[in-house]
Specification:
With 145 residues, the protein is of the alpha+beta class. It is built from four helices and five strands. The chain has helices spanning 89-94, 102-105, 117-128, 133-138; strands at residues 9-14, 30-35, 42-54, 72-80, 87-88. Strands 1, 2, 3, 4 and 5 form a five-stranded antiparallel β-sheet that branches. β2 (30-35) and β3 form a beta hairpin.
Length: 145
């Protein structure tokens, strides 16, 4: 069972300074939070990117490789599916559109990983089976169905 609210939650995460992929993310892009590991891996949040900007440094230790530049931080709004409502890796593996997605081929890859257009539509159908139309609209994923 997923969350019952259409309230989106603000969150953020750092993008690897070494990865050229951080330039692929733009404001308005859809986002799905993939959590990997041996226990309950899968998609736990879905929403959209509200911005990508340098992280505000707290201490010198947060600077990247002594360059004086803080890491980029991706900010997003999302709806949490929760542990009991997440899209499990096993379900993704059993879904033809997702069976070859990057999250399954290289689950420990640095952020951000990506879905193809067909994969994200397949994921949207799985989410829609657990969430209301209002929740999909609130997270901006309704346009994929």
């Amino acid at each position: 069972m997923g969350v019952s609210s259409t309230v989106t939650l603000a969150d953020s995460w750092c993008l690897s300074a070494r990865s050229g992929r951080r330039t692929l993310v733009r404001e308005g892009d859809l986002v799905a939070l993939w959590v990997t590991g041996p226990k309950d891996p899968g998609i736990y949040e879905y929403g959209w990117v509200t911005g990508v900007k340098p992280q505000e440094p707290i201490a010198d230790s947060e600077f990247v490789n002594g360059t004086g530049a803080p890491q980029d931080k991706l900010h997003y709004q999302a709806i949490r599916l929760g542990r009991s409502g997440h899209i499990a890796r096993s379900l993704m593996q059993a879904t033809p559109e997702l069976a070859a997605c990057e999250q399954l081929r290289a689950p420990m890859m640095s952020n951000p990983s990506y879905f193809t257009d067909d994969e994200v539509r397949g994921l949207a159908r799985l989410i829609a089976a657990r969430q209301t139309a209002g929740q999909l609209r609130a997270a901006r994923w309704d346009t994929l169905l």
